[in-house]
Protein 1
Amino acid sequence: MSTNATTRRVTHCRVCEATDWQEVVSLGDTPLAGGFLDPADRYDDEPFFPLGLISCRSCRLLSLTHVVDPEVLFRVYAYTTSESQTMRTHMTRVVELSRDRFALAPQSLIVEIGSNVGDQLIAYQRAGMRVLGVDPARNIAEIANAAGVETLTEFFDVGVARRIRAQYGPAKQILGRHVFAHVDDIAEVLAGAGELLDPDGVFTIEVPYALEMLRRNEFDTIYHEHLSYFFISTLVALFARHGLRLVDVERVAVHGGSVLVSAARADSAWTPRPIVAELCALEESTDINGDEVYRKFAGTVAGTVRELPELLRTLVGSGKRIAGYGAPAKGNTLLNVCGIGADLIEYCCDTTPFKQGKVQPGTHIPIRGPEYAKANPPDYFLLLAWNYADEIIQQESDFLANGGRFIVPVPRPAIVPGASDAGRIAGVA
Ligand code: TYD
Ligand code: ZN
């Protein structure tokens, strides 16, 4: 069933306000990628929403065609930051990079937007800094507060920014990791950042890098929470419109290839590091302003949507058992768009207690814990959490030693021959 009550069709670009869009790819109607269901629920009124990608011909923002009401998406939120080693290491690095490049000192105030359960801010606390989280999800902010990370249960806007400044003072760094792409009213968030930022503070966001999504065919990272997919040149223009200057980019491997981007006040002393111009030149040479790169992406997506279920059907037809590894949000785009259901995937195995015992949105594949997978190993794991390929394949040496194999869905569906090839095939650094 489709529903329009809580969606809005995008008309104006949320970066540059232009209205001239190029269609990139339509993925049909899908359920919310984080809409895990209770097995006791009735599934017949499960909401599906249109999922499509368009490109602004003016600033090359990649945007979803439709925006789902944030109250539906983010007030009760299933996503908790993964307790993986990869992510812990990354969070420590974010603190070190920020401290070294932007002269953060002990007692500097760090405000994180979309701070989730507080893991990133705990890493800042360890470095002696003062921290404050802002996250609209009540269930998640509660966990953060209990862990000693003071967290306001709010959507960040100008009003919240003013209140924080009055109570805690200006922020040396405002951080938004994998949250900026979730924001429809970007201008409001940037105005809020303008209110709260210290004169020599930085606004740092981490977003999946659109160039990597196109290059590695990561179309499963398209889902309703992710309204925007950014190039650096788009962000340069965005920040400039709001009195900020993009001064630093660090390419990081998390979530399939992301960028940690920092902007300072245009009238501050911070100047852009050379990498900013280098990446803008790379984007130019990839011809992101032409249409062809988007047509090619759509063609590759269509190829995967055809080939992956074929591969799984062939395996199941020859008596093999397949389970999903992980129950990440992106897996639900993949499964729903490819039409891969419980007839092909017996269960998905995920370490997140909240997800275990539930069923996947749309496909209703049951989610189990790792113990269940140990007791009922499949012949193949479809690696839905491919962004953790290296870590997972290391963990699953027994599964591999016993003849089990992984299937990676992107950049092209492939059976991973052995442990050492997995990261290379999944394209994960
Ligand atoms: P995540 O990377 O957060 O992706 P998304 O943004 O698409 O939701 O999700 C990773 C999921 O994989 C998360 O539910 C935890 C799970 N997971 C495991 O089950 N085992 C593991 O070893 C790792 C690293 C992750
Ligand atoms: Zn635009």
Protein 2
Amino acid sequence: MKKYFVIGNPIDHSLSPKLHNYWLRENNINAIYEKKKIDEKDIQSIISEIKEKKINGINVTVPFKKAVIPYLDKLSPEAELTQSVNTIILMDNNLVGYNTDISGFTKAIKDLNFKIEGKKIFILGAGGVVPSIIFALNKMNVSEIIISNRTRQKADDLKTQFKILNVIDWGDLPKFDVIINATSLGLNDEVINLNFSDVGENKLFYDVIYNPGLTNFLKEGKKLGNQSENGKLMFVYQAAHAFKLWHGIEPIIKNETLKLLEND
Ligand code: ATR
């Protein structure tokens, strides 16, 4: 039986096993997908198990998307440009790192009834998934990307990688058309301490968090008459792309698939 893992720390919250195992069953693939909490020192040995064919593929989540790179033989162009890997596969005996967060985010945004081209984007946070979001937004021809992070240095570091960025202090709220919460604030009912009362209408509030489905940030956006979307489809699309890379099959995404991820 083939074996797949998602590695990260923490990993308890991950719904990837639920989704992948569902698609594996649906496609009659004799494989299992599990989550594994690891420490940085374990990265090399778990990745080497792919080369030894004891493991067939790995998804990588917070905080190891960059840390896995030195142990890989090749990177896809997107993984190279973002220095972020979330899917590992063995191809012609080479360990190859892919980034499916970019396609996941892009597809999720394209599904929305919101024209993103030419829009002014404000990103909160500078963690593991943010380079992928910036890369995707750039490709979608947004007009400006402003970013703010509690630890400003991390946002400044991203600017050396993505010249389009405009870094502002944590706590400041610029004018925007789209605001993206890419912090972990909201996972445990936290509030983001910004005064949104003057942002106006017809904006998009997008939260990368999908569990809970309605964070305080999204509630606030809704209350002010704006469109609010959580990260569930981004999560499902990145998983579908990883599934396609490993199994060569595009999994079907239907309402039942999305229901799997509720109330967990
Ligand atoms: P990592 O930073 O390890 O990649 P992440 O979950 O991808 O982890 O990112 C967490 C994000 O949430 C970071 O932008 C983090 O800000 P810092 O870089 O300052 O740590 C942000 N974050 C977490 N807790 C926060 C808090 N209480 N207030 C503001 N931002 C917070």
